[in-house]
Design a protein that fits this description.
By secondary structure, the protein is of the alpha/beta class. It has helices spanning 11-35, 40-45, 47-57, 81-91, 96-99, 131-145, 163-174, 195-198, 204-210, 223-231, 269-286, and strands at 72-75, 151-156, 180-186, 189-190, 193-194, 214-219, 241-246.
Amino acid sequence: MSSQADSDVDPQVVRGLALKANDLRRELVTMFGMAGGGHYGGSLSAAEIIAVLYFDVLRLRPQEPDWPARDRFILSKGHAAPALYAALCDRGFFPRQVLNHFEEPGNPLTMHPNMRKVPGVDASTGSMGHGLPIGVGMCLGARLDGLDFRTYVLMGDGETQEGSVWEAVMCAAHYRLDNLVAIVDRNCLSCDGVIADLQRQEGFAARWEAFGWTVREVDGHSVGDLARALRSAPYQPGRPSVLIAHTVKGKGISFMENAPGYHRANISPEQTQRALAEVAAQRKALR
């Protein structure tokens, strides 16, 4: 795992990570197409975040998925599972054939991740507000066991309406869990529409700071900014870190961007091909 605080990110690394994010978009659109639909919006918005974690930051051993010293990753927004599956497959946690049969009967890859069935998944998620409390427990366990791994929790901003999130926020600060890094996919939309219309969002970063966390904010689609920020965590000794990643729901597919209706949607084969063509054009521009 990279650890040089605030280090510059090599341009070739940036390009490679951008290509990986593009790969994840292609794979998840393909998987949803095979399944007849899925949670497009939040999966697409998280592509760069997951790419940087799995191809630049996380300390892992794909051939030893339960390695005790590995970094933990919790996809608290479990509906973005296809992006996670694509990254795990690329890293070698399971064969391509498994990915190709997403959502088919008997296949371990379902719409939400199951840690009992999928190598490399550290928590079964899907119910909102559970990931950060689990992460707090993992960090406390690491301290008791004398292990130095970090736990990264990717959350949706809509999820922060759950009270359990703020209980975990308080607990992490109380126990000074600087081995905990929360990442908020701040796309400002949920399945119910604009989050600010559902619950006031003023001072979002200040709330985390008030509870004793150290906060950074980045463009969640800039792999360079994400890598720089995640490499430099923890941001302050003795305090948990939160990275607020400003994103676009449905990023990369023009007719899905900033459209709450694509939080969970079924699209036609023609729309799937149009989406894949857009992703392919973006890849060509990266080369």
